[in-house]
Amino acid sequence: MPRQKRLGAEMDTRQRLVDSFWDLLAAHTLREITVGMLAQQAGVNRGTFYYHYADLDALLSDAIERELLGDEAFTSILLSLATGHGDRSAVVVANELSTRRLCLVMDKCDRSIFQEKVESLMRGMWKTILCPDDEELPPATCLAVEYTVNGMMGMLAYWNALSPDRRDETELPLAFLHDLSSALLAQMSLDTGISRDEILSRLRAARQFASLPKPAASA
User: What count of other Cβ atoms lies within 10 Å of the Cβ of residue 111?
Assistant: First the structure.
């Protein structure tokens, strides 16, 4: 099979596995989901699952990463507010698929596990964007990232805990999120000497990572 077609087939299989994970998570807790259930839901065998993922935890990390870093992901929507492009209503933002999926993970798994994965992914993303020579993130930037991520996740958890009726009538505070996102970018620019426009340019490039083909799990 030509390399391009093979990569496309691998991407399709990984996407089916991730989509199947979200389908199963809607009906089961994370602890109840098994590799066999995922393989059956995705229409593949267990060997195919292990070709793409070392274990269920690796798939969970990939699924969360896609919802955090994709073009229509929760964090991308929030950071777009800082660029002046966040003109969608709060209701639309709150009902984005990625937002609802992140809420689903909060409901169906240990929140501390979810929080740890989100923090690790976001630290890794910003280190890749801001430190191309593999240097460490400035301490002030780390503090700003931790504060922003924990605040946004806490707000999302509170919103998710509301009753369906109250959730439908409650808007996320877009003006506040705009200011928070802007402050994070300003702090990063101050700490690193990288212009705000350059940070945003690197962020847009990094957001494509979740949709690129990744190496299969090592044996």
Answer: 12
Percent helix, percent strand, percent coil in the chain, to nearest 5: 75, 0, 25
Secondary element (H or E) of residue 122: helix 111-130
Rounded CA gap, 24 and 37, in Å?
Answer: 8
Half-sphere exposure of 63 (CA within 13 A, CB side): 27
* Distance separating the N- and C-terminal Cα atoms of the chain: 22
**Could you read off the pLDDT of 157-182 as tens digits, one per residue?**
887 788 878 877 777 777 777 788 88
DSSP 30: G
> How remote is the C-alpha of 71 from its chain's centroid?
10
Residue with tokens 């807790």: 29
- Highest mean pLDDT (candidates 40-54, 177-191, 197-211): 40-54
What are the extents of the domains in the chain? Answer: 3-211
Distances (CA, A) of 215 to 39, 65, 146, 219: 19, 15, 29, 12
Is the separation of the CB atoms in 18 and 59 below 8 Å? yes
Contact indicator for 143, 136 with CB cutoff of 8 Å: no
Strands (E), 130-191: none
CATH of domain 3-211: 1.10.357.10
